[in-house]
């Protein structure tokens, strides 16, 4: 059971995570986070001295959540193709948010990469988590190490591209069509 302090900290991180996704990191002020949480600024300062500290906690939360999701897919399916299809279906399941705001990890990395390389390196861990997991799946399908890396980056890049284009055009039909094409591509791999 979480202590009151742990609950407050978790609430700050959760609100910041939503705000950073919906408004962007630069578009979210420390005051926005204070107002969303509904506590005094000093309470937030007790847990986080800066907005950058909050961002690092948000990245850690994303890593925990996505790590748990990847572990769930790995445990659920013996066939790596089915695991990869779960990855692709994640895009379809989040189509409303993706078309409205884009990909949470893609937009964060893009924004931070422009003028905050030290923070972007932290956020890149989110891509690394997915890339490494995708590499494992392609290796399990019999790909060499180099080929598995290339295939993982191809799928990750295509998923990001689909999220960007669906967001730009606010087009869920395009997103669904691309997800179906990625699924067909994955099914062509044999064990």
What would you note in describing this structure?
The structure is a single chain. The protein has a domain at 56-187: Tetracycline Repressor, domain 2 (Orthogonal Bundle), CATH 1.10.357.10. The protein has 191 residues and is an all-alpha fold. The mean pLDDT is 95. The protein has ten helices and no strands.
How do the helices and strands line up, and which of them pair or pack?
Layout: H1 4-23, H2 30-37, H3 41-47, H4 51-76, H5 80-93, H6 95-101, H7 104-115, H8 117-140, H9 145-169, H10 172-187
* Low-confidence sequence ranges: none
Taken from the alpha-carbon principal axes, the silhouette is globular
CATH topology value of one domain: Tetracycline Repressor, domain 2
Tally of DSSP β-strands:
0
Structural class: mainly alpha
Q: How much of the polypeptide forms β-strand, as a percent range?
A: under 5%
Largest sheet entry: none
Count of helical regions: 10
Proportion of helical residues: over 70%
Name the CATH architecture of one domain. Answer: Orthogonal Bundle
Q: How far is the N terminus from the C terminus?
A: 43 Å
Radius of gyration: 18 Å
**What integer is the average pLDDT?**
95
CATH class group of one domain: Mainly Alpha
What is the ordering of alpha helices and beta strands? HHHHHHHHHH
CATH superfamily of one domain: Tetracycline Repressor, domain 2
Summarize the structure.
The chain has 191 residues and is an all-alpha fold. It is built from 10 helices and no strands.
Key phrases:
191 residues; 0% strand; Tetracycline Repressor, domain 2; 10 helices
